[in-house]
Amino acid sequence: MINITLPDGSVHQYESGVTPLDIAKGISEGLARNVLAAKVNDKVMELYRPINADSTVQLLTWNDEEGKSTFWHTSAHLLATALQELYPGIKFGIGPSIENGFYYDIDFGDYQVSSEDFAKIEKKMMELVQAKTPIRRREVSKAEALKTFGDRGEVYKVELINDLEDGTISFYDSGSFTDLCRGPHLVDFSPIKAVKLINLAGAYWRGDEHRPQLTRVYAISFPKKKELDEYLVMLEEAKKRDHRKIGKEMGLFMFSDMVGKGLPIWLPKGTDLRLRLQDFLSKIQKRYGYKQVMTPHIGGKQLYVTSGHWDHYGADSFRPITTPEEGEEYLLKPMNCPHHCMIYKNEPMSYKDLPLRLAEFGTVYRYEQSGELHGLTRVRSFTQDDAHIFCRPDQVKDEFIKVMEIIEIIFKALSFENFEAQISLRDPNNTTKYVGTDENWAKAEQAIVEACQEKGLKAKVEYGEAAFYGPKLDFMVKDAIGRRWQLGTIQVDYNLPERFGLEYIGSDGMKHRPVMIHRAPFGSMERFCAVLIEHTGGKFPLWLTPDQFIILPVSEKYVEEAKAMKAHLEDMNLRGSIDMRDEKIGRKIRDAELAKYPFMLIMGEKEIGEGTLSVRRQGAGDLGTMKPEDFAALIGKEISEVM
RNA sequence: GCUGCAGUAGCUCAGCUGGUAGAGCGCAUCCUUGGUAAGGAUGAGGUCACCGGUUCAAAUCCGGUCUGUAGCUCCA
Which one of the listed residues A337, A341, A391, A452 is annotated catalytic? Predict the structure, then answer.
């Protein structure tokens, strides 16, 4: 007999050789039906794999990330099986699960495959599901693996096998299809009840542009048909919320070929929105002891040679600007930090001056590959809500905590209810690509981990994701339809203080090196606004929206009164506009609803007579009449609830 | 940067296999002066992204450029 420990801590006795599926059956029929894979001693494996020693076992379902990824990974095999039957002789690359679904990279040879073939492929996949063909693992020697795939001319698989060590190679058979695969997989295809091919895209073999380009088939699958339908609705919703579309419709920003690609132009309404965000953050930062600075948009090349950025990114940057007479070289600034280091150096610093927190909404310019540009989320000119905190090593943790508080305040005010954090540490197996001493790295990494613990922040640790100059903490938010976006960041930097020779005089009268912390709660104003647009679908919170109200005069006769009312409301710190078109009231309401004005204020003979407004809330309808003062109070109250 | 796809009025798009351009919305003017999601009439707007080629003839076919887009690679 062996002891099996379940996640709740309970220990159960089983015969040696028990399978996870047996264990699931022992718990409940329902669980046995829904279980997809099992995590045995932290290793995910198939439900039919016998357990021969004392183990901890977690049964994985669709609700577990690992259950889901197993489901999708098996779906990738299902896709491959279907494709092989439809297109004999195609060559397979890799087929992993991804965040939303899975893909398979395929060399289709002479076959022409397009999205018009999707229905046919989906149909074939569902036929294979019906067949209930078992999927079985088998371990093979390297020689055998090479022979199997070599005979079939599967050049990509052969290359993969060549990189593997003998004794670690496994195959998975499902009917006529055999794949090189680490696994694990479902027992058979039958839990897959719905599949949908999403799109086709080119993808270089092993991500290398000098190697052949394969066709990547993206798809997603679900255990219930209904979940697929919901997913497709979500995709539609995402399309509707696309910030590029809403930005155009609402007149927030634009691009111009003449100005240049990747260079966003902020229109009056977008500028209003962005400035309001900046003011909001500035006020919080003031409370937290930040000092605002401003620095030029270009800087001497030597500044970036000293900072190390020239070495690291110079080749991938805009070319230097040169002066006509002297030939001096300047760079469009890609970073604000070197400028801020100069501010630090402007005066001798004492330990009593630290932490010094310098903040700047600094516009930076980076040459991004043209294929990378995307709306406001990836641009060549953007404004960071940047700040650099210069502090003593013993202050790092406290400063981290303070920045985390600022980020919390912001996320709350913008109703990003769900956020998570990622701690990026260096790759312990390859420490040479980082600058700075081992000791400093260890200290900084520890400070971040401890700060997260103290704030009770759930943070995922990722090794090898750190920047070359220091570890960092990134914040991810989930938007209203469940998509994850990376926003704010806090990064420790032991490198720049070293390179710029920054110092302070300690209480011991000796010179010491400060630590620098880069932080940007929004990240970039452009990207943040894009995420905010998609999160809210253009229905911004009242405190932020460019127009809080629109006055709709019932007829042209009341335009003068509407103008007076607008001025009156503006005196009470509200902002809005008037629809002065010669249209009927129903039409004005419809247009204002579609334009997402939060409040519509209807003024006709009745309201003017009694000095009131008919208030209508976007999406909610008529709220009845009220005095302008009461309307202002209503808005004031709603704003104070989030701020 | 690489590969695929696309570019027609301010916006969304139609225009089959070549015969020199259309709708809806928006905009302007006029009529209408209205009561909680589209009142009516009239009108203006396009070098069909740009450059070149094929052709009697190109929005349409071919090549190149630019821009957008889906991915790949990259991201201080």
Answer: A337
Quickly give A256 CA vs B67 C1' distance in Å.
9
What confidence tens digit (pLDDT) does each residue in A439-463 have?
888 888 999 999 999 988 888 898 8
pLDDT greater than 90 at residue A257: no
Question: Which value does ipTM take for this structure?
Answer: 0.94
Q: Of these residues, A91, A518, A519, A527, which one is catalytic?
A: A518
Sequence-distant (6+) residues with CB within 8 A of A296 are A333, A339
Q: Which token pair is A439?
A: 């000791």
Question: Model confidence over A1-24: pLDDT tens digits?
Answer: 899 999 988 999 999 999 999 999
Is A217 in a helix, a strand, or coil? strand
* A507 vs A442 pLDDT, higher one: A507
Assess whether A386 carries a catalytic annotation: yes
Q: What whole-number distance in Å separates Cα of residue A36 and Cα of residue A56?
A: 17
pLDDT at residue A211 greater than cutoff 90? no
Catalytic residue, from A185, A339, A366, A378: name it: A366
In whole angstroms, B38 C1' to A586 CA is 8
CA–CA dist A1, A439 (Å, integer): 49
Nucleotide nearest to A263 (CA to C1'): B67
Tally Cβ neighbours within 10 Å of residue A222.
23
Buried b (16+ CB within 10 A) or exposed e, A532-551: bbbbbbbbbbbbbbbbbbbb
Q: Is A366 a catalytic residue?
A: yes
Tokens 């040479």 belong to residue: A432
A181 flagged as catalytic:
no
In whole angstroms, B44 C1' to A299 CA is 50
- CB under 8 Å to A359, separation ≥6 — which residues? A282, A285, A290, A291, A292, A293, A385, A386, A387
Chain B positions under 7 Å from a protein CB? 1-4, 11-12, 27-28, 30-39, 66-76
Options A384, A395, A491, A548, the catalytic residue: A384
Query: Is A384 part of the annotated catalytic residue set?
Result: yes
Task: Answer yes or no: pTM beyond 0.95.
Answer: no
Tell me, yes or no, if A518 is annotated catalytic.
yes
**pLDDT level of residue A464 (50, 70, 90 thresholds):** confident
Backbone phi and psi for residue A410, each to the nearest 5 degrees, phi listed first: -65, -50
Closest CA-bearing residue to C1' of B73? A207
Pairing of strands A511-512, A515-520: unpaired
Sheet-wide strand order for A37-40 = A11-14, A2-5, A55-60, A37-40, A43-45
Buried b (16+ CB within 10 A) or exposed e, A345-354: eeeebeeeeb
Residues 6 or more apart in contact with residue A492 via CB below 8 angstroms: A396, A444, A447, A448, A470, A471, A472, A515, A516, A517
